[in-house]
Write a structure and sequence with these properties.
This protein is α+β, with helices and mostly antiparallel strands. Helix content is 24%, strand content 26%. Bound molecules: iron/sulfur cluster.
């Protein structure tokens, strides 16, 4: 499920990378990423709190994280 304004997608590799999960959890100021030993899960109820800071995209390898702005069809990614 996505938020109304924001969706965050993780690559298949990123979802199961516990080390990356911790980095994403530490980076996001509004707790959109929940880390566990199994990897990263998205906290759907926090998605619309995203401030588009880009810290998650910067903390992850290229192609691992995409923050989608559902209201204009663009996204943050690298
Ligand atoms: S852009 Fe910033 S606020 Fe949005 S999910 Fe990434 S780290 Fe969190």
């Amino acid at each position: 499920m996505s938020g109304i304004f924001i969706d965050v997608e993780l690559s298949a590799e990123a979802k199961v990378d516990a080390e990356l999960a911790q980095k994403l959890s530490d980076a996001c100021p509004v707790d959109i990423f929940a880390a566990s030993d199994g990897g990263t899960s998205i906290v759907d109820s926090n998605l619309d709190e995203c401030i588009l800071c880009g810290l998650c995209v910067d903390a992850a390898p290229a192609g691992a994280v995409e923050v989608k702005k559902l209201y204009d069809g663009t996204s943050l990614k690298r």
